[in-house]
């Protein structure tokens, strides 16, 4: 069981379990993308060498969505990660990803990856087919794999109350961590995202939260994670998986400077 690899030693690698417990400083997650296993392994090796806390495989960028091919690639990635935890994310086209997938295929793929014990956590889109999402949640829970529930709005930023309502509804659904990414159009939108994040971190502590405002305007929100209570933030190495991600080497010192721990 991937989740069972968590151990509380202080020098143990950070795991997604730490994120689900909101433990310690803000975690930095670096996404990797590759169409072939060779590209993916190169990206994973570069990511492991750069030293993020967690690596996210954006599976929607891989050449195949067949469980066997994906499992083989996942094993190759894990081999080069040297114990660094892996977050498995299939971002659907509806939420800014590269592929469309049917609900049955979504469940089959995630169930296979969870059963293989290769990943620490999986991302489940809150707005994807509800029965499929719930099936993945149940499989993950049974295997001790953490689930990050996610919701992306590439068009706009809901107001702070609407964001809190969305994130608390996601908590009630049973996700271990809830994540929202929005598109700001003015500084007020960025402030709304930060406001909602702090409301979640202070008044709705049932689960940790991860938030970001995307695009250039939103870059501040990626740096502000330690101040407002986002338990993790995404940084890029080479290629961004969403607009506005900062290079890992730039973001790390800023997070350390702003850290409240
Ligand atoms: O959900 C997220 C957050 C993200 O969209 C970002 O804006 O950094 C990047 C994605 O790879 C990840 O799955």
From TrEMBL:
Keywords: Amino-acid biosynthesis, Aromatic amino acid biosynthesis, Lyase, Schiff base. InterPro entries: Aldolase_TIM, DHquinase_I, Type-I_3-dehydroquinase. GO terms for molecular function: 3-dehydroquinate dehydratase activity. It is an enzyme of class 4 (lyase). 3-dehydroquinate binds at residues 56-58, 91, 222, 241, 245. Its EC number is 4.2.1.10. Pfam families: DHquinase_I (PF01487). Pathway: Metabolic intermediate biosynthesis; chorismate biosynthesis; chorismate from D-erythrose 4-phosphate and phosphoenolpyruvate: step 3/7. It comes from the Bacteria. Transmembrane segments: none annotated. The active site is at residues 152, 179. Belongs to the type-I 3-dehydroquinase family. Homodimer. NCBIfam families: aroD (TIGR01093). This is 3-dehydroquinate dehydratase. It comes from Propioniciclava soli.
């Amino acid at each position: 069981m991937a989740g069972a690899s968590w151990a509380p030693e202080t020098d143990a690698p950070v795991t997604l379990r730490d994120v689900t417990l909101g433990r310690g400083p803000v975690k930095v997650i670096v996404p990797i993308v590759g169409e072939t296993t060779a590209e993916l392994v190169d990206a994973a090796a570069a990511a492991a060498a750069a030293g993020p806390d967690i690596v996210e495989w954006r599976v929607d960028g891989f050449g195949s969505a067949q469980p066997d091919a994906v499992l083989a690639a996942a094993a190759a990635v894990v081999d080069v990660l040297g114990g660094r935890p892996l977050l498995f994310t299939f971002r659907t086209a509806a939420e800014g990803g590269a592929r469309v997938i049917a609900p049955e295929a979504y469940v089959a793929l995630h169930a296979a990856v969870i059963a293989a014990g290769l990943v620490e956590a999986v991302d489940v889109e809150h707005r994807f087919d509800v029965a499929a999402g719930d099936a993945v949640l149940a499989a993950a829970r049974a295997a001790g794999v953490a689930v990050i529930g996610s919701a992306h709005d590439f068009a706009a930023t809901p107001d702070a109350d609407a964001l809190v309502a969305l994130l608390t509804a996601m908590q009630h659904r049973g996700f271990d961590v809830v994540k929202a990414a929005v598109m700001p159009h003015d500084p007020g939108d960025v402030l709304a995202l930060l406001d909602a994040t702090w409301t979640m971190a202070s008044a709705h502590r049932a689960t940790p939260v991860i938030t970001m405002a995307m695009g250039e305007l939103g870059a501040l929100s990626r740096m502000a994670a330690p101040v407002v209570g986002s338990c993790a933030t995404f940084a890029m190495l080479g290629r961004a998986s969403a607009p506005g991600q900062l290079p890992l080497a730039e973001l790390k010192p800023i997070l350390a400077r702003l850290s409240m721990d």
